[in-house]
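Section 3.1: Structural characterization of target chains.
Under the original work plan, the team committed to producing a structural model for every single-chain target entering the pipeline before any wet-lab resources were allocated. The record below documents one such target. The sequence was received from the expression subgroup and is listed exactly as submitted; it comprises 374 residues.
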Amino acid sequence: MTTKRTDTRPRLYTRPDSKWWWFSWSTVDDDGNPVRYRLSCQRLNLTPATHTHDQAFEEILRYYGMSDIPEPGTETLGWLQKHLPDRMRRDGIQAKSIKNTGIALSHLTDIKGADTPIATLARVDIDVYKMHLLERGLRHATINLYLKCLTALFQRLLDDGRIHYDPFARFKPLAKQNDRTLAFNEQYIAALIRTIDEDTSAKYRNDPVRYEARKRLVPLYLFLGLRRNEVLLIRRDEVDLERNRILAMNIKDRQRRKRWITIPRSIRDEVQWFLDTFPGDHPFYVCHPDTITHDVKRWVRASGIPEDLHLHSLRHTFTTLALRYESVWRIKDHLGHSSVHTTEGYAHTNVDDGQEIDIGIDLGAHRERQNGKT
């Protein structure tokens, strides 16, 4: 009898109506369909009277060319790495999945060793596997892909009865890696401001005043740290230039509660310009919210800085700079966040450490407190 290499070892047993040893095993045919064989050992002349169980079992393995298939529970990673491609190919798995699973298994073999029995793997090996791949510089998405491949592989072994549990069944995927540039540094800010000053698009020459107003909105977002609509919806009676503060509405709050925002010296003239130029109740609402978003995106592309940056990146930049001088709790109230964890998520490392900027909080009082402590 000729057939493909089996996936499970034969099971040897006796039957009360026969004097021969009987064996059964599962395999697949040339088309990948599962086949189970139940045959007697009459051809090999193996009986319980003349051959013990172990002797008959060795004869069967030698006759059908299955002597290199280990007992369930004793398979090693090296054996699995050797027979994995053929098994997955017979199961109809795509070539890309076979390749990824082979790579994932090779990393696991490098960590634990080729002679490590599969049954001895524990859930603690998941963390070791993650750290190994992180040290090799692999991306989080790639590591999660390899872990998913190993989970599918061990689930297949679990279904075959070769292992009793899947050590990779409850792995926790690594957080999604964010390689985007989310905050402006000093060079990016200078390039953006330079591009805005030099922008004289003919498209906006019919209304130069409002186009100038859209340019002047960018420093407000940078130095106040407000959201897009929070700047545009500021009312005239909510601006107190005598005390250098603005009463800004929290658009994320259901009750639309308002908070006082300090006006830094850097943009006091900009705020005064809006009040003098536009006499309405909303002097800062000079365009549709989407218009200023598209303008900033266009200026970012024209300045040659990373295109991941956008209007909301100015709020990230403000938070990153402010957290160097003030407590996270005060910045949280300034930004209108509900949790300090949200505020901490706005801090980034690509902003230059040496940059100093007069942001919209009372940095002078903070420096006086620091000097008093020293």
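DSSP finds 14 helices and six strands in the chain.
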